[in-house]
TrEMBL record:
Keywords: Oxidoreductase. This is 1-pyrroline-5-carboxylate dehydrogenase. InterPro entries: FAD-linked_oxidoreductase-like, Proline_DH_dom, Proline_oxidase. Residues 127-355 form the Proline dehydrogenase domain. GO terms for biological process: L-proline catabolic process to L-glutamate. GO terms for molecular function: FAD binding; proline dehydrogenase activity. It comes from Helicobacter pylori (Campylobacter pylori). It holds the Pfam family Pro_dh. The keyword Oxidoreductase applies.
Length: 357
């Protein structure tokens, strides 16, 4: 094990050195801004609230007032460059008089600053980026950003987006969530909710299989995990639906939820049974977790026990416990795994463990 650790540290250093040596000036400036977010939690809250309110309303006058309120509420300006501070000063001083000009400019500036992480949905730009990465032997996972849908009209619109993505001749891999394809999820009526979700998953998997044969290009649907309340429903719906198809598909498990380890064993047994029948294995992607603030808020308001680990060390331990299970004996032969982490040491460790098999 010590050799694994030493090799992981050496690989992490090589990766970090390579990354650092290839950073552009624009990327260095962006990293500096992100560091300021980490140093002061209030900066992160302000930026999230600012972005949320900037895109939520269509009326520019109302949007200006929302943005003005957020900037007045949080006085800190340390995350902004000198030029951006001048722009903000001008926006707050004169923007109210011409909101139809100032607000779109403000929003476009946000889009520009986040374009390295969030691609515009415009087809030409998306296609260009995907094909560029494909030439580099990288398949992009297309994840349509959006919140939990509030009605079936919105759910149908999102379903249509997923369908069009699968029908495109350049998108191979998409991520979906159960809360974006069905708006009336009720955990108390588990069977009804599962039936409706399975019906929609069936349609997407069938379309993926059809397009795969038609285009001669693999199609992959990944089912993202959301809050703890949706864990069992997501796993059960996934297994019931994908059992009908010989298709590449996957699901995400979050290590900060203790129950994820038991669901991993259940999904592995399911995948092993598929493989022994001659069907394709499922893919399971491990992540640390993405909804901690939401889980803490719900637990606090409802006076419930926190369903996640309360500290990072336990989450990291569970992540590696899940990895240990997959690499135990011949377990790895019956599933495909993906390891996602912002921690370069974690990525290096997973890579080293897998290549040591």
């Amino acid at each position: 094990m010590q050799k694994i650790i030493d090799d992981s540290l050496e690989l992490a250093k090589k990766l970090q050195d390579s990354i650092s040596s290839h950073l552009s000036e624009q990327e260095k400036a962006f990293h500096s801004k992100m560091q300021k977010l980490l140093n002061n939690p209030e900066n992160k809250v302000m930026l999230i609230e600012l972005m949320d309110r900037s895109f939520r309303c269509l009326d520019n006058k109302a949007r200006f007032e929302m943005i003005e309120h957020v900037l007045d509420k949080y006085k800190s300006r340390e995350i902004f460059s000198l030029f951006e501070k001048w722009l903000l000063m001008g926006f707050l001083s004169f923007g109210k008089m011409l909101p139809d000009m100032s607000v779109p400019f403000f929003v476009n500036k946000i889009r520009s600053d986040t374009k390295a992480m969030v691609l515009d949905q415009e087809e030409s730009q998306l296609k260009e980026r995907i094909l560029k990465r494909k030439n580099e032997k990288i398949i992009l996972n297309v994840n349509f950003i959006g919140e939990e849908v509030l009605g079936e009209e919105e759910a149908n619109a999102r379903f249509e987006k997923y369908s069009q993505a699968l029908k495109s001749n350049y998108i191979q891999y998409i991520s979906i969530k159960i809360t974006t394809i069905f708006s009336q999820i009720n955990i108390l009526d588990f069977e009804y909710s599962k039936k409706e979700i399975v019906k929609r998953l069936d349609a997407l998997y069938a379309l993926a299989l059809e397009e795969e044969k038609k285009q001669g290009m693999p199609k992959f649907i990944n089912l993202d995990m959301e809050e703890f309340r949706d864990l069992e429903l997501t796993v059960e719906s996934f297994m019931e639906s994908i059992a009908k198809f010989d298709l590449n598909a996957g699901i995400v498990l979050q290590a900060y939820i203790p129950d994820s380890y038991e669901y991993l064993k259940k999904l592995h047994a399911f995948s092993k049974e598929r493989v022994l029948k001659g069907l394709k294995p499922i893919k399971i992607r491990f992540v640390k977790g993405a909804n901690m603030e939401s889980e803490e808020t719900i637990a606090s308001v409802k006076d419930w026990a926190l369903p996640t680990f309360s500290n990072k060390q336990d989450t990291d331990s569970n992540y590696n416990k899940m990895l240990d299970f997959v690499l135990e004996g011949d377990n790895y032969k019956y599933i495909h795994i993906g390891a996602a982490s912002h921690n370069i040491f974690e990525i290096a460790y997973v890579y080293t463990r897998i290549h040591a098999l």
